[in-house]
Amino acid sequence: MNASPVALVTGATSGFGLETAELLSKNGYRVYASFRNPRKLAALRALSREQTVTLLFMDVNRPPTITQAIRRIVKKEGRLDVLVNNAGFVMAGFLEDLSDQEFRAQFETNLFGLLRVTREALPVMRRQRRGKIVNLGSVSGRVAFPGIGAYAASKFAVRSATEGLRQEVRPFGIEVCEIAPGSFATQVVASTRFGQKVKSPSSPYTPFTIQMEDRVRQEFAKGGAPSEVAGLILRALGDSPMKPVYLAGRDAKAMVFLKWLLPDAWFEALLKRAFPWSRSVRP
Amino acid sequence: MASHSVALITGCSSGIGREAALRLARRGTTVFATMRDLKKDGPLREAARGLPVQILALDLDQSASVRRAVAQVKAKAGRIDLLVNNAGYGAFGAFEDFTDAEILAQYQTNVFGLMRVTREVLPLMRAQRSGRILHIGSLAGRMTFAGIGLYCSSKYAVEALTEALRLETAPFGIQVAVVEPGSRNTSFKANRQKAGLFEKNQSAYQAVLQKILDFGNHQSARAPGAKAVVDAIEKAADAKVMKARYPVGLDAKLYPLIRWFLPDGFYDLLLRRLYARFQP
Q1: Any CB–CB contact under 8 A between B145 and chain A?
Q2: Closest CB from B157, B171, B260 relative to A156
């Protein structure tokens, strides 16, 4: 293999994706950065002028765009060494408030989209008998907070998919790991989508949702810089073998440690203290 | 749960759902037992003769069908005290093998369908200011095994939904929990859906998958049946305060403990060793 490995980073217009594309390109990777929304391209365009980053259109919910993007990489480079499955978003809202379509949309992008891109990349990697796949999970893949239950469910599923894929593809020389960040100052809050009924006067959950939203905003404002997560991804790619999971951020580590340490009921009692409205009120 | 209460149970044509419907009905609970295909109601109808069991059609994949079934229960009984989200099946195959349609089908039933029923039932329970929701999850929601990874991921999602729903609905007096059976000798094996590529013998993982499938069938053939799962459902329904999780069976209790105890790296090594045993 020659000096510069080829990497595909999905959802690279902002946040972890953008930072990862930049950091990998600065560290000798030939980076293909995929985007879905051409109106959000300013930062990525600027990056592609300075670094060897190639922009690719890809909508993880439209399979032909994935096939085309990967075909283009393989045609040009002859291989694909690294896939960073970063594309994702948060569908916020208490579970009863989310419609069937809204709930499904969360899985379409965060899980099914990830599996679609992976499915297209794996044959290339199996042929090479090498490759590394980094899935962006979350602390929400380990602890399900109220108000973002759909997101948590999709990230729990990503954690499981990473564990499963890791076993299945290892005999082909392919490694898979999960990067699980806590709160970081990314666009994730700005790009959060809310279900139509969420925060509406007709929802019985509206007061709780508003309290949760404030809480989440505060946490994310306090969060670390997304470059920290990009740094961790670079480090993971350098590890041989890659560890199964890399937790990013002190809040993620503390939360996961507490959940590991405490019995279910105690951990839940802690959460109920943090969200006082969630205590049971009987008539 | 008081004996004269009302329960709605999905997936009652066989296995855990059917046994749970009969057990609850025998203690006087009015049971609405649903199934997708009413042509499969024979065994339940036969066993439920003289018991307060009403069989309803409910296709989890169809919002309209879910709405209709819950409305029927509401009209007939006026309340729902216990919802058992039992319907589900296991997809089999390597992640790379599944088509979009196969992935969607697994989630339509195990996750989206579960939420459809829950979403319809919650307003009623909120109005009652009481109610219990039991998801039938799995040991597969705590650990992921190669070859059934897609199924496991759907059950991980159910774990998350349980955790979130517990906190979200507690202010309304509603309790939520997940029952986690390990390997069981139920209709699970017969209802398994294999990935098309594996069925056509075209999977890049063919040999190892075949060994995993044989192993799984061997395991479940020796495993206990639905009884202990129904015991757990009854226990949760009667508990003053429901715990979050009810693992059922030695494997479902022991394996997560091993995982809890082992550092990530050792656990990973253990999985690698296990998987190596299935290599042709």
Answers
A1: yes
A2: B157
For residue A281, what pLDDT is reported? 57
Residue A2 is predicted with a pLDDT of 55
Residue pair B211/B92 in contact by the 8 Å Cβ criterion = no
Chain A interface mutation, best of B62, B97, B122, B153, highest count of A Cβ atoms under 10 Å? B153
State the Cα–Cα distance between residues B251 and B159, nearest whole angstrom: 18
- Alpha carbon separation from A94 to A210, B185, B278 (Å, rounded): 11, 36, 42
The token duo for B209 is 């998958």
* Residues A204-262: tens digit of each pLDDT: 999 999 998 888 888 888 888 889 999 999 999 999 999 999 999 999 999 999 999 99
pLDDT of residue A188: 66
Using a CB-CB cut-off of 8 Å, the residues of chain B touching A145 are: 164, 167
Closest chain A C-alpha to B250 CA, distance in angstroms: 19
Provide the shortest C-alpha distance from residue A103 to chain B (in Å).
8
Task: Identify the segments of chain B with pLDDT beneath 50.
Answer: none
> What pLDDT, on the 0 to 100 scale, is given for residue B224?
87
Q: Among candidates B12, B76, B73, B72, which has minimal Cα distance to B40?
A: B12
pLDDT (0 to 100) of residue A278: 85
Closest in B104, B149, B168 to A146, CB measured: B168
Contact of B44 with chain A, judged by CB distance below 8 Å, is answered with no
CA gap B93, B146 in Å, rounded? 8
Catalytic, B89? Answer no
User: Are B171 and A271 inside 8 Å of each other by CB?
Assistant: no
pTM of the model: 0.96
Rounded (5°) CA angle A148-A150-A152: 70
Q: What share of chain B is helix, strand, coil (3-state, %, to 5)?
A: 55, 15, 30
The 3 state secondary structure assigned to A115-161 is HHHHHHHHHHHHHHCCEEEEEECCHHHCCCCCCCHHHHHHHHHHHHH
Choose the catalytic residue: B89, B107, B151, B246: B151
What is the Cα–Cα distance from B228 to A183, expressed in whole angstroms? Answer: 41
No. of H helices and E strands in chain B?
Answer: 12, 9
**Residues of chain A below pLDDT 70:** 1-2, 186-190, 280-283
B56 dihedral zone (left: phi>0; alpha: psi -120 to 50; beta):
beta
Contact B81, B7 (CB under 8 A): yes
